[in-house]
User: What shape does this take?
Amino acid sequence: MVRSMLESFGVTLRGAKREAAPAPACVPSPAPAPDERTPIRDAGYVVIDTELTGLNEKKDSIVSLGAIRMRGGVIEFGHTLYRIVNPAAALTAESVVIHQITPSEVQEKPDIDMVLAEFLRFCGGDIVVGHCVSIDLGFINRELRRISGSCLKNRALDTYVIFEWLGQRASGERAFEKPSTKDYQLHELARRFDIPVSRAHNAMMDAFITAQVFQRFIPVLLESGVHTVGELLSIGNPFKGGDAYRAVGQGCNL
Amino acid sequence: MLVEEIINFFKEIPPFQFLDEDALKAVAANLSMEFYPKGTVILKQDGPASDSLRIIKKGGVKISLRSDSGEDVVIDYRGEGETFGLVSLMGERQKTTIAAVDDTICYLLKKHDLFRLIDSTPAFTEYFLQSHFTKYIDKTYREMRNKSLFYGSSDHILFTTQVGELANKEVITAPERSTIREAAQVMTERGVSSVIIVDDRNLPVGIVTDRDLREKVVSRGRDTAEPVKSIMTLPLIRVDARDYCFEAVLKMLKYNIHHVLVIRDGALKGILTNHDLMLLQGKSPLSFAKDIESQQTIEGLIPVSQKVNSIISFLLKEGARASNITKIITELNDRLVRKVLEIAERKLGPAPLPFCWISFGSEGRKEQTFKTDQDNAIIYAEPLSPEEDRRARDYFAEYAAFVREGLIRCGFPPCPAGYMASTPEWCQPLKTWKKYFSSWIATPTADAVLKSLIFFDFRPIYGDFSLAAELRDALNDMLEGQKVFLGYLANMLVKNTPPVGFLKSFVVEKSGEHKDELNLKIKGITPLVDMLRLFALERGAKETSTIERIEALRERHTMVKEYADELEHAFEFIMLLRIHHQVKQMETGETIDNFINPNHLSTLEKKTLKETFHLIANIQNLIAERYKALIW
Assistant: This one.
C-alpha cells in the first residue's frame, strides 16, 4: 500500500513537470541571498527532508527527498517536490524498515544527479529549512561537490536549533518548555505541538511536519524580538553549536 | 500523501463534500495553510479585504463587529470545518474583526479558485447564501413533524384547530338584571348547560351553569326570584378565537372550569365547553385531570399517574411544542401532588399552622417531562410559642413523610440529595427560610450556590400561597445590589461551556457507558436555565419557568431583549429534542436518559443544535463581560 501511495504521488508530480526543459547541469547557482532586512513573515522558505540509507556520510546516500515551499508563515500545498532516488549505495535492511522504500522500488527511479538538479531549481534563492538539517545538507553537498565541485549556496535554518534557542529565550504565554533529549526527534517535537504524525517516515510527510513546526515558531519568534531574516539566520544557523545534537541523537532525522 | 490528507478532511465538510474527487484534488493542490496562535487578530474590521476564504482545520475563531458607538459585539463563532472571510472577499474592506480564540490552523483557498467553484457548483452557491438561525428552527420543526414515527396520520386537533372554529357560535345570554328563574328558563328553552350573563352593553360579566343551579340554588333552597348575579361564577376565563384549542384546554385545567368564553376582536364570539373538546378527541388531557380529581386514595391515584407519561407521546404526536407539553405535564403533575397533599391532610387532620407546599428544580420551573425526582419543601407560618413550634414540627414531619411515600408510589422517586419536605432542614417556618436564603447570598460557598440554584426556582403548589409570595419578595430584596453573589452564579454558568463551536464535531462523553454521546440536559438545557435564572434574579422577576422568564424580561433586560426570540427557539428546540429522545426510549422500553448521539441527528438538527450552542456561547461571553471583575 505504501508503495502504491508513494508511486501515485510521485508519478502525478512528475507527470506535471514532464514538459520542463531538459535538466541543466547540476551546478548550484550563486543563489541571490535574501535581503537580511526582509521581515521573516515575507521571506520565502523551502522546507526539506531526506531519507538516507544510513548516517555514515562516507558510505551512505540519499533515498528520497521531499520539499515544500513556504511564503512567510503560509505553507503552499501547490508547491511541493518529492523524489525517490536510485541510490548509489545498497539499501540496508535496517534503513528499509524505517523508510519503507524497497530496493526494487528505487531501481527505476532517477539517480541523484537528476533529482538534485530539479531540487536546485525548486529552491531558487529561498532559505532552506530542515530539522537537524546539517545532516541532510551534508549528504546533499557531498553529491553536489562530486557533481560540480561546489556546495549549496542557499542560506539554511535548522528548526531544532531555533527550538533550542526559543527554549532558552522565549518567555511569557507562548514560552516552550526546555527541550529534552527526545525533542531531537522530529516526531516527538511535532507531538509536543499537537501536529498529527503518521507512523511511517517519509521525506515528504516529514518535510510537511517540519514546515508546520516552523510555522508554529514564527509567532513566538516575533514575540521574542526576532523580526528580520538576518536575525533569524543568525539564531537558526544549522552549524551552530558544533553539531552537538549529532552526538546525542543518533539518527535524529531518520 | 499531503493531498490525500486534505481531501479526506474536505470530504467531510460542506460545501466541499459536494465536489467530486477530481475537483477536490484540484482544490487541494491550490490550497495553502496558515497557523494563528490563540488571540491573533486574523482579519481586522476596516482593514484590507482578505484575498482568501479560510477553512478552519483546527481551533476556532470569534467574529465581532465594532458598532458606531465603538462597542465590540460578538456576532458569531466558527469552528472546525467552518469557513470565514467570505463576505470580505466581495468587498474592498474587511467588515468584521476575526480573531483566533484558540490555536488555530486554517486552509486558505484563493479568491479566484473559490469563485471558479462557485460558478461550477450550484450547491456551493446555495450553501454560501444560506440564512440564519430562526429559519433553521422552522425547518427543523417541519422536518421533525415529518418523521413518520411520531407524526403518522393522526390529526393534530389540539394544536392545529383554532378555538374559533370549534366554539359554539351562538352564545346564549341573559341580562344582568334577570332572576335565577329567568336565567334557568333561557337555558331550558335553548337546551344549553350554561348561560352567559351580560351587562347593558352586552359585555359578559359572568356565567351560570347547571352546576351553579344544582349547588347554589336547589341544594340550598335559595329563592329563584333572587337576581341571577348572586349565583353567577366569576371571573370569566376567556380565550382568543385565534388561540389553538390547546390554550383553552390549559385554561380549563388551570382554573378547574368547563367553559371558556371565546373573544374575537374584543367582542364575545362564542363559548367553548369541555364537552366540545371531549367530542373532538377521545384522549384529552382533560380526561386525565378528571380522573385525578375523582380519586380519594393513594391506591386510586397510582394507575392514573402511571398514565401521565403516555400523554407525552400523545401530545408529541399531536404536534405540540415542547413548552406546551411541559405545561400540560406540569399541570397534571401539580394536580397529582395536590391530591396526595389533600389526602394527607384528610388523614392527619388540619395543620396546626398555615403552611405552603413548594416545589423547586424542574418542577418549580414547570419544565417536567417524564417523572423526575421529588424536589419539595414546606414553609409554615411563624409559631407563637415553643409549644406551638413543637406541635408544628411533629405534625409536618408526619405529614411530609406520608406525602413522600405517597409520591413514591405514584412514581416520583425520592430526591437522592434529600431536598424534600420530609428532611427536617427543608420543613421550616418562614423566618428560617429567609435566614437560609440570606446566608447563602452572604456567603456563597460552593454548597450555598448549588442550593440557591435549586431552591431559588421555588413555586407554591398547595396551601397558603402568601407564604411563598412573601419569601419571593424577601429574596428579591436580599438580592438587591448583591453583585458578588450574582457574580458567583455568573461565574459558575460561564464555566459550563457549550460543547461545540471550536470543534468540527460535538464534544461528547469520552468514555464510559455514554461514550460518544451528548448530555442534552447538562450541555443544552442547564446553561439556558442558568442564564435565565441569573437574569430573573438580577431584575427581581418572580417567574420561575425559563420561557416565562424570557417573556417577563423581554422589555426589562437588555440581553434578553436582544436575544429573546433566539433564546425561546433554542430552549424549545433542545427540550423538544430531549422529549423526542425520551419518548422513543419509553416506547422501546429503554431506560429514560438525557444522552443523545449527535451522529444520529439529521444535518438540520445538527446545524440547529450547533446554532443553539453558539447562542449559548455568545450570551455566556456577554455575561462574562458584564461580571468581568468577578469571573476567575
Q: What stands out?
A: Chain B touches chain A at residues 1-4, 6, 28-37, 40, 103, 108 (CB under 8 Å). Chain B has 25 helices and 20 strands. The longest helix of chain B spans residues 558-587.
